[in-house]
Amino acid sequence: RNIPPPDFSSNTYATIRRALIADADSPGITTGAEAQQLLRDQWEEENGTLRARYETQLEEDQAIAEARIEEAANEQRIKDAERKAKEDELAKKAQGKRTPLYSFKQGVGVGHIRQQIHPYAKKLMTTRKYVPLWYFLPEATAEAKECNREAIDNNRFQIAMDETDSSNSALTLVGSHTVRASPNAVPDSRLSWDQVMRAKSSFLNALSYGDFTNDFVKMFAGFYTGMDMHPELREEHGDKVLALYHAEMRRAWYEGFEQREPFDLAVFSEDTLEKCRIEIRRQNNEKASKRCRW
To answer: From which residue to which does any coiled coil extend (predicted)?
Structure first.
């Protein structure tokens, strides 16, 4: 903006005016009016230089600001393009996870419905991992039916963005339904002999999920048959002993299987059976001791 010049005719500049008139180096200045004009001309010249410098600075600042705005806009366009590409990629992955439409023959039904097991058990059986036998009991089967129903009704694929750091955010494809272990599951060591016997058939049938060969299926079947026919069952607390034996041996077999050293589970381990007898006696004595204290 224009700045008005000072009033060089005022008393503020009287001393300067007199000095200019008296100055021998200023022969053209003989009156107060001439002194005022000289002061005004000098001010106009200096102010013009400062104004030109100021306007140049404004133009430079404006150019820098516009360049920064354009740079930020370009960066945002690049980020938007990358985000869009990522979303498209994840959307394609989600589309690829949909179950294809297979053809069927009209009028041809199903004669046998495959046994339903808990999704968590199915996942582990498919990968041939250890699964607590509880997952093959009727109560787990009922839970499995509910889980399968929820999976069909609620499972969706979503594109989620991690907003914890806007400068380094990431897109992720997640499922709204995830296979998890049941909070109601009970370890084998806490199952009764009756529960072991009720769950064994479902477990043996589920071996097909892991594509176990007939030799493995026969071995597991022999494992349960051997326990069911063992004379230990006729002994006092024999059912508890064999329930614990089952837990110890099945866990040991899967651990050996993981280490590539499986053994024939159908071969009875008398050493393990004796250790289980000792453990059950210890538990019974502990319970009796507690009752006596009460």
So the answer is: 40-89
Which distant-in-sequence residues (6+ apart) come within 8 Å of 287 by Cβ?
none
Q: What sign results for the dihedral spanned by CA atoms 246, 247, 252, 253?
A: positive
**Which residue blocks in 207-258 are alpha helix, DSSP H?**
214-228, 238-258
Q: Is the pTM of this model over 0.90?
A: no
Q: Which residue has the higher pLDDT, 233 or 110?
A: 233
Q: How far is CA 17 from CA 32, 38, 44, in A?
A: 6, 9, 17
Task: Please indicate, yes or no, whether residues 293 and 218 belong to a single structural domain of this protein.
Answer: yes
Is 100 part of any domain?
no
Token reading at 241:
């002993």
Residue 98 inside a domain? The answer is: no
One-character DSSP codes across 185-207: ---GGG--HHHHHHHHHHHHHHG
Q: Is residue 190 part of a domain?
A: no
Cross-strand bridge partners of residue 171: 161
Compute the distance between CA of residue 262 and CA of residue 40 in angstroms, rounded to an integer.
Answer: 107
Domains: count for the chain: 3
Boundary residue ending a domain (182, 205, 235): 182
Range of the domain at 123: 113-182
Q: Which amino acid is at 244?
A: L
Q: Which residue in 229, 223, 228, 224 sits closest to 266, CA to CA? A: 223
Task: Kindly state the percentage of the chain with pLDDT values over 90.
Answer: 51
3-state class (DSSP) for residue 284: helix
